[in-house]
Amino acid sequence: MKRTDIAKRPSSLHPELRKVLGIPRNMPASEVLRKWRSAAQKVCKPCWELKYCPYGPFVEESPLLPDIPREHIPKDILETECSVFGHICPVLFVAEGFTETKQVRRRGRYISFKTKIRVVRRDNHTCQGCGKHLLDDEVEFDHIIPQSKGGSSEEHNIRLTCFKCNRDKSDKYER
Q1: Residue range 28-39: mean pLDDT, rounded
Q2: Element (H, E) at 160
């Protein structure tokens, strides 16, 4: 682990954040974030694929992040904020493990040959990041929604990129 990663980990959570998310006062921040990351990894992110929130009825019961400076909210929690409604994704609170798991959502890194060919043809051998025309040995396949954030290896979530653009993007996603 890099020293910068260690420095970014909060030693405590803002009291308002604890209150809104229902986190006990005596639970250490490191344990909260470990459990939060674990929950976020296990559930699917259907709104990213469907372009709407299928958990709409639960939105009213799902908490909004408190009105505190964004730098006081850990990145892992910020990433679960809904880009449409602004609440914490209800999936984290109402999802059931037996329906929303890595296995059920087929989140493996494996991209079938058929899918690769379709993506190369669809993207016309062109990097979707910088627009560079790519030779067959320069082609890289990028997950638009990174697998670490719940993205699948299905055609709609794969795009063609060059080596540089794929490495620059890393595990980020654009909303």
Answers
A1: 86
A2: strand 158-161
